[in-house]
Amino acid sequence: MTDLKGSARVRTAGAKRERLMRAAAEVVHQQGAERTTIADIARMAEVPVGNVYYYFKTKDELVAAALSEHARQLDLLTGHLDQLPDPRERLKGLINAWVSQRDLAARYGCPTGTLAVELDKRKEGGLDVEAGKVIRLLLTWVERQFRELGQPNPEGLALTLVGAYQGMSLLTNALRDPGIMQREGDRLLAWLDSLETN
Length: 198
Description:
- By secondary structure, the chain is mainly alpha-helical.
- Helices cover 80% and strands 0% of the residues.
- The protein contains 10 helices and no strands.
- Helix 6 crosses helix 9 and helix 9 (154-174) packs antiparallel against helix 10 (178-194).
């Protein structure tokens, strides 16, 4: 009986921690790291503020948790796309996933990109490095797709694609125009179709 209670507590604690991580990712995306408070995240997660400190001692730990959540969401997306047999279709699926978030991008920008820019204003060697790791995960996955397509310079093509995404997210956000994301996404899809398979 004691083991059952203990494992139930562990599951509840794990679920609460995950809720806090998801809430941190959402609130930090909407408000930025500097404007977000622990109370904001607690409210979004529906967790008493005092309980947050059991899982995360500082706001920076919650920002790091938000970045971990971004990495987890990216892993879920790329894992789903990896089920597609063709690397070109995987890349198209990635672009379509970006475009499907155009309304959110118009309001808040790219979750990881905008946070990386904000964290870069801080002292080097902290959370800015963690944000860079999430972007590196995306670049590595995209590069692998171009390599599987037999493209020369897959690293450069990955930078082009991810850079285009960051650019269209920024413009979509700055101009509050989701249509930019749609149009640029269509352009990227046409570009992928134009690449020869080697």
